[in-house]
Amino acid sequence: MSAATPAKRVVVLDYGFGNVRSAERAVARAGAEVEITRDYDRAMNADGLLVPGVGAFASCMAGLREARGEWIVERRLAGGRPVLGVCVGMQILFARGVEHGVETEGLAEWPGTVGPLKADVVPHMGWNTVDAPAGSRLFAGVPSGERFYFVHSYAVHDWEFEATHAAMTAPLVGWTTHGSPFVAAVENGPLWATQFHPEKSGDAGAQLLSNWIGTL
């Protein structure tokens, strides 16, 4: 009889701006071995890295840089190692964020600007559907019309992507509408991200996390 396949090891990056305990519990329920840490080597060597985020874009970026998180994310992606960003942990992957007229540089893994939601009711807090892209691995097995939990006041409204060579394919982008459409999820090689909180999204969120872990 062959030995059981060891569980994939996921690090939840602890840089001071995320619901790390909720993420830890949800990822563990989805079948991974989970550790909360900001240790550079452990984060680099994990099978998967989850980058949470709650609060202001500028504060999250400052905390990420203080924890050397930008180096961890960039070097993992350069080596094709999976990263999942959640909520503001997704927003900081874009080129910039603008809050109260102040612009802050993001990690620029994707072009685009995070700005205020264009809606009468802000923050966007509660359950909403996501228009998942065709061929999505992130949303595999999730019924159409399923709802996910959002808590945010800022989002990316204009998706900008330009292939730098012919072999490149465009990322898969999921959209949600609150007042106007905004980016709710992205799948781009080893880099996946969600504006909503899968760890707070019940069975649908658990399926997404299981799908991600299955790619590690």
TrEMBL record:
It is found in: Cytoplasm. Pathway: Amino-acid biosynthesis; L-histidine biosynthesis; L-histidine from 5-phospho-alpha-D-ribose 1-diphosphate: step 5/9. HAMAP family: HisH. It comes from Streptomyces armeniacus. NCBIfam families: IMP_synth_hisH. It catalyses: L-glutamine + H2O = L-glutamate + NH4(+); 5-[(5-phospho-1-deoxy-D-ribulos-1-ylimino)methylamino]-1-(5-phospho-beta-D-ribosyl)imidazole-4-carboxamide + L-glutamine = D-erythro-1-(imidazol-4-yl)glycerol 3-phosphate + 5-amino-1-(5-phospho-beta-D-ribosyl)imidazole-4-carboxamide + L-glutamate + H(+). One of its GO terms (molecular function) is glutaminase activity. One of its GO terms (cellular component) is cytoplasm. Pfam families: GATase (PF00117). Heterodimer of HisH and HisF. The active site is at C87 (nucleophile), H197, E199. Its EC number is 4.3.2.10, 3.5.1.2. IGPS catalyzes the conversion of PRFAR and glutamine to IGP, AICAR and glutamate. The HisH subunit catalyzes the hydrolysis of glutamine to glutamate and ammonia as part of the synthesis of IGP and AICAR. The resulting ammonia molecule is channeled to the active site of HisF. Residues 11-211 form the Glutamine amidotransferase domain. The keyword Lyase applies. The keyword Cytoplasm applies. This is Imidazole glycerol phosphate synthase subunit HisH. One of its GO terms (biological process) is L-histidine biosynthetic process. Keywords: Amino-acid biosynthesis, Cytoplasm, Glutamine amidotransferase, Histidine biosynthesis, Hydrolase, Lyase. It comes from the Bacteria. InterPro entries: Class_I_gatase-like (IPR029062), GATASE (IPR017926), Imidazole-glycPsynth_HisH (IPR010139).
